[in-house]
Structures are given as C-alpha cells and as structure tokens.
Amino acid sequence: MTPSYPEQAVAVLFSGGDAPGMNAFLRAIVRLGLNREKIAVLGVRDGYRGLVRTARAVNGDAEALMRLKNAIASHPGRAGLINDQLDLIQMDHASVSGIMGKGGTILGSARCLEFHEKEVRTNVIHLLKGLNVRALVVVGGDGSLTGAKLLATESDLQIIGIPATIDNDLQFTDMALGVDTAVNTLVWAVDHFIDTARSHRRVMVLETMGRASGDLARMAGLASGAEMIITPESGALKAADMERLAAKIEGAMTRGRGHAIVLVAEGVEFDPPQKRNRAYVLMDAFQQYFQRSGAPFPDLEVRPSVLGHLQRGGHTTPQDCILAARFADCAWINIGRATGKSGVTALRKNNIEIVPYGEPDMPERAAFSREMEQLHDDLSSW
Ligand code: ATP
C-alpha cells in the first residue's frame, strides 16, 4: 500500500550561514512534532532555495503537486534524505537519530537571492498551502528572519523564526543558537595559539567572525584570557588608535609579559578604510610600532590569523543543544495556539518567549557588551 501524504504538516528550513545547534534543533522540532503534537514535519533541503526550486517545478500544476505529494510520502526519512531530487522530506524518528551534536545541518542551508522577489515568495506560499503546511519554521540569521517576516506579512501562514547565527548580532535575544559553540571553538583555538605565542614570544592577532557585532570576540576574550579584544562597537581605528594599542602591548612586555593574543572582530573598521583583513592591517601597524627607532623590543614578532569558517563547525555544546530544544518547544507551543500568530523565539533573562518580527534592540544587550569589555580590561591589565 502506498503511504498517504499527511493532511497537515509543519515545515522547517535552515537558511543563511550554518550555525552549530541547527541539527539539535531539527531533532527537537521533529521529535516534539511526532511524539507530542502528532503532526508531520517536512524538512526542507537547502533553505529557501529548496522551496523556490520545488515551487518552480510544480508551477501551480495540480497533477505535479499530486506527484510531489506521492514522492514525499513514499520516501520518508532517510530515503528522502538520500534522494537529491526531493527538496521536501517527511522526517521520521530515525532520520534525526545521532545528529544532535553534529555541527552544520543535515538538510543543508543556502543563500537564495531570488527570495528577495515578491513573486517568487508568492509561488512558495502557494506551494506550502498546496502541501497542507500550516506553519513554516525558519532557522537562521538576520537575513533569513527578514525573509520569514515577509512571508508572514504576505500570507496567512504561521511563520516562526528561530535565531541561529554564530555572530550573535540579533539584538532581540540574549543569545542566538550556535554562539556558545563558536565561543567554545574560539577558546580552543586561542589555547593552541598561546602555545606557539609563548614559545616564540610572539603577538598573535586572531580575527574572529561576528559581522558588525563584537560579541564573539568579547565572549571568547573573556573566556580564553586573550590579552586584548578589539571590537567594532569602539569605532573605526585610526593610525593613532593602533599605536596606542601597540603601546599597551609593549607596556605589558616591559612589565614581564612574554606574549600576547589579540582578538579582532571582523566588523572592525579603519579610518581611512582598508581592503585587507583586519588581522593583517593590525599586524603591520603593530610591527611598525615595535620596530620604531629606539623601541625596547624590535624583535617582537606579530603573526596574523583569520580564523574564518573554523568557527562554524565542531561538536555542538550542551548549552546550544539545550537552547535548541527550548526554542523548538516554544515554536510548537505557538504553533499549537489557536491565534496562529507568527513571531520569532527569543532567549530573555533565561526565559524563552516568542516576540514579534522587527522587535527593537534590547538596550540590555548593548549594556552587557560594555560590561563584558570593561570586565575583560580589568582582568587582562598587566
Ligand atoms: P548569517 O547571519 O549566518 O549570515 P543570515 O540569515 O543573515 O545568516 P543572509 O545571507 O543575510 O544570511 O540571508 C539568508 C537568506 O535569507 C538570503 O539568501 C535570502 O534567501 C533570504 N533573505 C535575506 N534577506 C532577505 C530579504 N530582505 N528579503 C527576502 N529574503 C531575504
């Protein structure tokens, strides 16, 4: 007997840059759907791109939609995951087994420029309705949640957003999914760089991700004991600022410090602007300062490293797995509500809430960032 297509479903997709905790979230949303809510969960491959591709293939044709439903129903779980012709997979228990701690996302994530076009989104809305989807859960960063907000305003579907980005640049939540793991990875990386910095009496300048936010560098700085953090929130760096920072390191060396780890966030800007990576610009500025005439440590070497995508991978921390489960729980509670309201999950003062799209920035976030920076300064002064 051919398995039948579900009468109602909730769809989930992962969009934008991947973040650790996405798989833990998928497991939680699927298991809660099957165990508690008794609603089928459709996993979407490659984020919005998977929906756009499928909507284009179906193209409003009733027979094509029926064929798609049959294909989804006859390839549940892993059978669907290994069938790369299928962008929507009816997830089962086994398909989310053993994925909780794995970084990345088994469904794939993508950027999809076409999703900026209203007509493309309208076709996606028709597709979702045709597939009996009652709610769509969008997991991603700022851009992905903007796409989710547009879907929510342009349709009567319930669209639940889940903040997931290692950048922690979403100011409506204390933490996004993936941040804790990325900080963990950075602390691990700093530990490795310290070994070589100490052995060679070097200054290592490490560039972290974070887009316009310095949170990742700040948290990693506090947790690793890195000597210096440079974040975008302090404003664009002029030549004099870089000299002041180099003088601070030199001062620490004079007082007996043998090495220094400097974390610079990728969002840091320079005045005048520079095209090269921040770590390299700072290396040159520092090196020039250390080698000025009459300097006490002309042999002090500065080495740069751009940590890049390393920060996205790795084993998801328990903290992120717990946050993923709590976000999934909150999503289902709201999907179950008769109001059918759209919104995005947020961690606030250790509560998980659903807040409207486009909530203003929480002032506490900026205050917390300043406090962290001050605390780091007080802890690392030599
Ligand atoms: P990260 O913070 O990790 O980079 P992100 O979600 O911010 O993740 P983006 O590349 O900004 O990543 O956005 C991901 C996708 O979301 C885009 O490729 C696009 O499909 C969709 N998207 C972004 N902005 C919009 C928008 N204004 N309108 C419609 N869709 C959008």
How are the secondary structure elements laid out?
Blueprint: E1 9-14, H1 22-37, E2 40-44, H2 47-58, H3 62-74, H4 78-81, E3 88-90, H5 118-130, E4 133-140, H6 142-154, E5 158-163, H7 179-200, E6 202-208, H8 215-224, E7 228-230, H9 239-254, E8 260-265, H10 278-290, E9 301-306, H11 318-336, E10 343-348, E11 351-355, H12 363-380
Parallel strand pairs: 1-2, 1-4, 4-5, 5-10, 6-8, 6-9, 7-8
Antiparallel strand pairs: 2-3, 10-11
The structure holds adenosine-5'-triphosphate.
Adenosine-5'-triphosphate (ATP) binds at residues 15-17, 48, 111-112, 115-116, 140-144, 146-147, 150, 165, 167.
Write a structural description.
This protein has 382 residues and is of the alpha/beta class. It is 44% helix and 16% strand. It contains 12 helices and 11 strands. The strands form 2 sheets. Strands 3-2-1-4-5-10-11 form a 7-stranded mixed beta sheet, with helices on both faces. It has a 4-stranded parallel beta sheet with strand order 7-8-6-9, sandwiched between helices. Helix 8 runs parallel beside helix 12. It is elongated and about 80 Å long. It starts with 8 loop residues before the first strand and ends with a helix. The structure holds adenosine-5'-triphosphate.
Summarize the model shown.
The protein has 382 residues and is of the alpha/beta class. Helix content is 44%, strand content 16%. A 7-stranded mixed sheet has the order 3-2-1-4-5-10-11, sandwiched between helices.
